[in-house]
Amino acid sequence: MKQLSDHFYRKRSGTAWEKTGAQKALRLFHRASRDVPAYKHFLKQHGVDPLKIKTIEDFKNVPPIDKKTYLRAYSLKELVFPASQVALHTFSASSGSTGTPFLWPRGDTHENEGMFLHELIFNKFFGIKPTHSALGVVAFSMGTWIAGTYTLASMKAMSNKGYRLMTVTPGIDLETLLDVVKPLISNFKTVILAGYPPYIKDVLDYGREAGIRWHDVHMKLLLAGEAFSERFRDYLMRRSGIKDPFRDIISLYGTADAAILAHETPLSIYIRRKAADKKQLAQALFHDERLPSLFQYHPDLKFFEVQDDQLLFTAEAGIPLIRYRIGDRGGVIAFEEMAHHFANRSMFPVKQFLWKLPFVYLFGRSDLTASIYAVLVYPEHIKSALEQRIFSSYITGKFVMSTEHKRSYEQHLLVRVELKPHIRQTRSLEKLLVRSLLEMLNKHNIEYRKLYHSLGERVVPRIQLVTHGDPLYFRPGTKQRWVKKD
Predict the structure, then answer these.
(1) Gene3D superfamilies in the record, alphabetically (predicted)?
(2) CA 263 – CA 247 distance, rounded (Å)
(3) Do 404 and 353 share a structural domain?
(4) What is the pLDDT of residue 352?
(5) 165 and 203 housed in the same domain
(6) What is the CATH number of the domain that holds 405?
(7) Which domain holds residue 297?
């Protein structure tokens, strides 16, 4: 895939991007309806005649697919194109956040797409040119999960293309990562840390304690797998020496199902930071007081729709996905619609990145919440409470929240918080955390605010401080789970 110029992204209209995406989605639908046995059967079961699906409006009436009713209902060979059409060579496992892990195949076509998107981010946003010496540190889980192996494949492809990019793959073993990065870092102009946001925070914190001088090189952060606040981005900037919040920390919207779905851009970050400061803007854009993740996407690679506040996408992944309901809540905003909210675009500090790609925003999985008296509590609110600077010396920022019940069957919200190494549990720290949590919930969650006004102390969250690396809740080497379900 050939890289496009900044000029092309700025000049091509949002409508043109979306028209191309719709055309490709329709072509994929017809190809899958003809050549993928499972999809052919699925459409027949639902009484859909593919020949009658001629326009994108027709396409919107095609029933969505999901993991339970489609992917797990057929065998792998029924779900993919014939081997004569698409060559597949690697499996990755989904995280299993909603059940048993699912295995997803991919091939060179899908990895070439990953290289295209990584090069776009590295070259255009991070400013890495083929002549620059750069070290890519893959701090995602390796093994069967997609993030680590896909990132490695993308970086290696960039090296093969001529970039002076070398890669090291310590994964999520913190001690190993620090041991390999410390002697390497001074040999490179730029260092890219790629990993889960909470883990990259640990890397920066403990690396500093180990004597790694992050500020001496040009640090870039490529993040995925978790949402984070703009306050958290600011923290990462302070720890890493990064000065540019719009170009040097980029988050991906990725999934094992279809790799990279969308990514942050300097423009999406600018808009999100404005929305974080102005509740009215956030409400106007996202129809919610909470601040979602905000990305731009390439409709010719992934075509997004929204149905009942659930994101659907169509993509030619290893398993072709047509109007696939992934389980994420969010929405889509056309570039022209977004532009109406920012009439004075001359104020943008990122003028060269006024790309007219559409936006997708993401609140997260609909099942990743705890509840108290039927009011949903979201991880974003807990993160905001724990990210206050006064707590940074005492806690890691990791937590597990759950809805617990007393013997009298009364509910309460319990938040288990991981202490930093060698920090002891104290009642005073617990009280400060409860106060911060209560303040954030009342500030950002309207339903909780009403509940607290009615029930008072009965719905105040409880904090349980847990020792660092606790094997039950914060086991090292595993992806953090923010919600504990019964």
Answers:
(1) N-terminal domain of ligase-like
(2) 12
(3) no
(4) 83
(5) yes
(6) 3.30.300.30
(7) 105-365
